Amino acid sequence: MRKDRLTYFKKQLVEKQRQLVAEVGRAASYGKDTEDDAIKDLGDQANTAYTREFFFELGNGDRRMLRDVVTALGKIDDGSFGSCERCSEAIAEKRLEALPFARYCITCQRVVEEEERTAAG
Ligand SMILES: [Zn+2]
Hints:
Number of domains: 1
CATH class: Mainly Alpha
Order of helices and strands: HHHHHH
Bound molecules: zinc ion
Shape: flat
Distance between the termini: 38 Å
Strand content: under 5%
Number of strands: 0
Number of helices: 6
């Protein structure tokens, strides 16, 4: 992957990590008034609606996602970012733009989700 693309994805991931850390921290301090500043910060961003939707969809999965974001940042550092963890093929950049912390290509993602469903059911 080109260096400017890596820089772009790294920026996305760092921002997502910042948001998730704030969200996890907020969940941990539920009922306190510490959230005001964080909400103001989010409000300053142009994509507030997206951010809100993002957190709604995340629900209780935010810790898991935070872990994936941290993993993805590590992969940028060690040069393996953009490769599927399962089949080692390149993950489509369109997919990475939507999910910069994606661990699998779309094909493997479906297989992994199917396996998880089977394990859970
Ligand atoms: Zn794959």
